[in-house]
Structures are given as structure tokens and as C-alpha cells.
Design brief:
This is Probable cytosol aminopeptidase. This protein has 450 residues and is an alpha/beta fold. Helix content is 35%, strand content 22%.
Length: 450
């Protein structure tokens, strides 16, 4: 539980830059020392190669994990140590860390016990609205984390479809529907169906629609929801199978953003499309070198069945544009190993040909402190996607070149001249086998006043 200005709590955490107060304070940047005599935690933030915000995040995370009881946070002492950082951003970071670390995450352990302490921020009363917003958006960061963390034997496409329908239907103004295989066939969403062929569960394309700004543009959010990715007939080696339950993260993020915006009653029109299916191997699974006609009429040669994410996204983008009249499209996906190799766990890759979309995202990310890095889509990447198949309009996997860029280039063929931005978040969205709910905050900030 997080509050503001409830001062009568047992413990306190203050920010310091050295150990002048007590020589027992560890002065390592980002460290936290508890002094029992004063019932006070001392968080060290000082000039260092490590940024002050990172010191704050690491120190607060350590504090919350080792908390001894109800604690006040001396906000002003921390703000004074973060020169040049707006106090609203400092406040956001404190809320983010506390709400992240105190979340009762998905677990199947028999005797797991959760700590339930009060954490209070001592600050001015004009932060109450900001606290309310932080609680809302972090509610859906944690919701996305929970969706990510379900084990694959539980987190099937049917499970996610039913759960999201049930949860989202409770939010006023948010319309929710599910497209299963019969409807997908009627819509000619053949790329989704091709990926789903080897699964023993139907695809569940979850559609959330919200209209709260008459006569304004409609935003599309499209998320890759591969509940488990074996690679299909282009089977992944065992070292790369680990963590493939997280291949539905894009859809988890998109659904969570949509629910947060609707609950906040944002002045926006959007359609959110979460494309949930498996990519499995079996006698019915799609074969390499198959040619499939997409929803927008382009034929695609499937040269690699492990490049399935861009297939479901392609039909999802077409659906948002043609069936829901979207004017602007954002897609989010754990799409390529190439982008993961380029950026590691440091940032999400962003691909767009629209400078203004990148600038707006970059500005929102500066406020949320999540990190994104722009990567290119060159004409050569588009030409490769077209020319690497002799028999079809496009290939889903080029013979050479940067995989992240050619994957993004593939998706541009389905954007139909709409403003389009693709986020590839393969490694930042989880730490080990724990989901992080990354990107929810930034997209919420970007779109809440769109």
C-alpha cells in the first residue's frame, strides 16, 4: 500500500550522499543501510558513473525487498540529490518501484508469504492526483506481468481470451470481443490461421474498442500473442526454447495499455488487437515454403516457420485498418533475436518511417524513464522482403541482412500508408523468467492525452 503524508509510521528512509550522519552507512552508490537505533534506512545517491535515477531505482528496490515494517519516504531529501531531474519524475520512479516490488505476483508455491506494509511518501499535497495516476498505470503494469508469468500449460490462447474478456468487460465504455477460427476464416485472416494450424487450441484474437473522443482519429494497438513458440518445423534448439512462454508479451502489453486508458477515461479512440495463438509443431503445422494469402491480399512465402510473429501481426494490422478504420498503428512484439542481440536488455527497438511518431514516443519515455532506441527501415530492407521470394509477393524471412529491420520492413506492407510504428521488445520485457510489464507506462503516457 502506498500513500502520501501519513507521517506516523515506524520506519523512515532518507536520501544521503555520504556517511557524515553515521559512519556505519555504506557509501556505495545506490546502496541502502539500515540503522536500527534510529529506525532509519539511508539511501546513497551521489555523483558517479551510474546515473542518479538508476541509483534511486536500485536502492529503492533493495529497500522494499528487505523492508522491516511501515515506512515513510523522505521525498525532499531524495529530490535534492537528483539535480536536474523534475520532482514529478522522481515521484513517478518512487511509485513505480514500490508498486512493482510490492505486487503479489503469480506463484504456485505452496507456502509463499507476501509482505503487506504501508509505504508513505512525505511530500506536498499537490502530488495526490499524480499518485492516483501512478497507482492506476502500475496496476496495469502488474496486470501485464501476471499475463506474462502464467505457465504455458495454463496460459493458452483460450485461457487468455476468456480472462481478458471477463476482466476488460468490467471497465465502463470498453467493448470486448474475441475472434476465433471460424470468424478468422470469414475475414481471410489466413496468416493467423497458418501459425495456429499446429495448435490444439483455437486462435483467440482479442479485440478491445474504446471511443471517447468523437470525430478524432482512431489509434490501433496491435500485439503479438504467441503463447508458446516452438519455432514450428524450423524447431528452436533447446537453448532457445527457454522463456518462449513470454512470446505473448506484446499482446499482454497492448491489452493492459487498452484497459488502463479506458479505466482512466482517456479522451481517445482506439482499437487494441491481441493475437493469441501457439506456434507448435505437429502433423497439421504449417510447412516451410508454404505460400499463404494474407488478409490484405498479398501472398507470403513462409521461408521460416519461426518467423511467425510478423505473420500474425500482419493480419492484425490489416484487421485494425480495414475492419476498425484505424488511422494510426502501433504494434508491440517480442519479434526478433536480431534486435535483442543489438540492444540486449537495455532498450526496446523502435522502427518507424514517421519522425513525429518517434519524437512523441521518445518524449513520453523520458518522462517514464523506460528506454527505447530507434533503428532503421531502409528501402533495401523492403526490396529484400519482396525479392527473396520467387513465387510470392513477400517472404517472411530474408536470406540475409539485419533481421530486426527486415521484419519491420515486412510489416510496412500491411500498414496501407497509415502512420505506423513498430516496437520490438524481445529482451527488455523479462528478467530471467519473470515478466516486467515494460512499455505499458510509456504508451499510457503517450496516448492518455492524445
Amino acid at each position: 500500500m502506498i500513500t502520501i503524508n501519513n507521517k506516523n509510521l515506524e520506519y523512515k528512509i532518507v536520501g544521503v550522499s555520504n556517511n557524515e550522519i553515521n559512519k556505519n552507512i555504506c557509501t556505495k552508490p545506490g546502496s541502502v543501510t539500515f540503522i536500527s537505533e534510529t529506525k532509519t534506512y539511508y539511501l546513497v545517491i551521489k555523483k558517479d558513473l551510474m546515473s542518479s535515477l538508476r541509483q534511486l531505482k536500485l536502492g529503492l528496490s533493495s529497500f522494499v525487498k528487505n523492508i522491516k515494517g511501515d515506512t515513510n519516504i523522505d521525498f525532499q531529501s531524495i529530490v535534492e540529490l537528483l539535480e536536474g531531474v523534475k520532482k514529478e519524475i522522481v515521484f513517478n520512479v518512487i511509485c513505480d518501484v514500490v508498486l512493482f516490488e510490492t505486487h503479489n505476483f503469480i506463484s504456485y508455491k505452496k507456502d509463499l508469504k507476501h509482505k503487506d506494509y504501508k509505504i508513505n511518501i512525505e511530500c506536498s499535497n499537490n502530488m495526490s492526483a499524480l499518485l492516483k495516476e501512478n497507482i492506476l498505470k502500475n496496476k496495469y503494469v502488474n496486470y501485464a506481468r501476471d499475463l506474462q508469468d502464467f505457465p504455458p500449460n495454463i496460459g493458452t490462447s483460450d485461457f487468455y481470451g476468456n480472462k481478458l474478456l471477463n476482466d476488460a468487460s468490467k471497465i465502463e465504455g470498453l467493448e470486448v470481443s474475441i475472434l476465433k477460427n471460424k470468424k478468422l476464416r470469414e475475414l481471410d485472416m489466413n496468416l493467423v490461421l497458418a501459425v495456429n494450424q499446429g495448435s490444439n487450441h483455437e486462435a483467440n484474437v482479442v479485440v478491445m474498442e474504446y471511443n471517447n473522443n468523437p470525430n478524432d482519429k482512431k489509434i490501433a494497438l496491435v500485439g503479438k500473442g504467441i503463447c508458446f513458440d516452438t519455432g514450428g518445423y524450423d524447431l528452436k534448439p533447446s537453448a532457445f526454447i527457454e522463456g518462449m512462454k513470454f512470446d505473448m508479451t506484446g499482446a499482454a502489453i497492448v491489452m493492459s495499455i487498452a484497459m488502463a486508458l479506458a479505466e482512466a477515461k482517456a479522451k481517445i479512440n482506439f482499437v487494441a488487437v491481441g493475437l493469441f495463438t501457439d506456434n507448435k509443431i505437429g502433423q497439421k503445422a504449417v510447412l516451410p515454403e508454404s505460400i499463404i494469402k494474407s488478409m490484405n491480399g498479398l501472398t507470403v512465402e513462409i521461408n521460416n516457420t519461426d518467423a511467425e510473429g510478423r505473420l500474425v501481426l500482419a493480419d492484425g494490422i490489416t484487421y485494425a485498418i480495414r475492419e476498425k478504420q484505424a488511422d494510426v498503428v502501433y504494434d508491440i512484439a517480442t519479434l526478433t533475436g536480431a534486435t535483442a542481440m543489438a540492444l540486449g536488455e537495455s532498450a526496446s527497438g523502435v522502427f518507424t518511417e514517421f519522425d513525429e511518431m518517434w519524437k512523441q514516443l521518445h518524449k513520453a519515455a523520458a518522462y517514464t524513464t523506460e528506454r527505447f532506441w530507434r533503428l532503421p527501415i531502409f528501402d533495401e530492407h523492403k526490396e529484400q522482403v519482396q525479392n527473396d521470394s520467387i513465387l510470392a509477393d513477400l517472404t517472411n524471412s530474408c536470406n540475409k541482412g539485419p533481421g530486426g529491420s527486415t521484419a519491420a520492413a515486412f510489416l510496412t506492407f500491411f500498414a496501407e500508408n497509415k502512420k505506423f510504428l513498430h516496437i520490438d521488445c524481445s529482451r527488455v520485457v523479462r528478467v530471467g523468467l519473470k515478466g516486467q510489464g515494460y512499455i505499458v507506462k510509456t504508451m499510457f503516457e503517450l496516448l492518455k492525452n492524445n
